[in-house]
């Protein structure tokens, strides 16, 4: 396994572990999701170059578009939950209390 593969695999694993274990604030969960998307974007950008596959060259652009939509939705949820609940703590957000 080469060094670039190891680096984005470890970045994805570390961000998923951060999402699993540090679930106190919504902003930390959003940052972990964005780092997962960034590592997937880097992986999808390197893969067509290594395999000389021009048909998959559009995949990183689509991934970046979906990542931007996910970031905008997450920030809108952060602002809405902060306005209604007063903080961004995840333990305050309960689906049964809606």
From TrEMBL:
Keyword field contains Membrane: yes
GO terms under biological process: ATP synthesis coupled electron transport
UniProt superkingdom: Eukaryota
Membrane-spanning residues: 6-22, 29-49, 55-80
Catalytic activity annotation: a ubiquinone + NADH + 5 H(+)(in) = a ubiquinol + NAD(+) + 4 H(+)(out)
Gene Ontology cellular component terms for the protein in this record: mitochondrial inner membrane; NADH dehydrogenase complex; respiratory chain complex; transmembrane transporter complex
Enzyme class: translocase
EC numbers on record: 7.1.1.2
Topological type in the membrane: Multi-pass membrane protein
Main location: mitochondrion
A Pfam match: Oxidored_q2
Compartment(s): Mitochondrion inner membrane; Mitochondrion membrane
Keywords: Electron transport, Membrane, Mitochondrion, Mitochondrion inner membrane, NAD, Respiratory chain, Translocase, Transmembrane, Transmembrane helix, Transport, Ubiquinone
An example molecular function term from Gene Ontology annotations: NADH dehydrogenase (ubiquinone) activity
UniProt-listed InterPro entries: NADH_UbQ_OxRdtase_chain4L/K, NUOK/Mnh_C1-like
Primary role: Core subunit of the mitochondrial membrane respiratory chain NADH dehydrogenase (Complex I) which catalyzes electron transfer from NADH through the respiratory chain, using ubiquinone as an electron acceptor. Part of the enzyme membrane arm which is embedded in the lipid bilayer and involved in proton translocation.
Family: Belongs to the complex I subunit 4L family.
Protein name: NADH-ubiquinone oxidoreductase chain 4L
């Amino acid at each position: 396994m080469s060094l670039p593969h190891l680096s984005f695999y470890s970045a994805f694993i570390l961000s998923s572990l951060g999402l699993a274990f540090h679930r106190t604030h919504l902003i930390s969960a959003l940052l972990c999701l964005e780092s997962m998307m960034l590592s997937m974007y880097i992986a999808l950008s390197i893969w067509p170059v290594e395999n000389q596959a021009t048909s998959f060259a559009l995949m990183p652009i689509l991934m970046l578009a979906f990542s931007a939509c996910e970031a905008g939705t997450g920030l809108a949820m952060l602002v809405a939950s902060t306005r209604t609940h007063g903080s961004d703590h995840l333990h305050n957000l309960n689906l049964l209390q809606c």
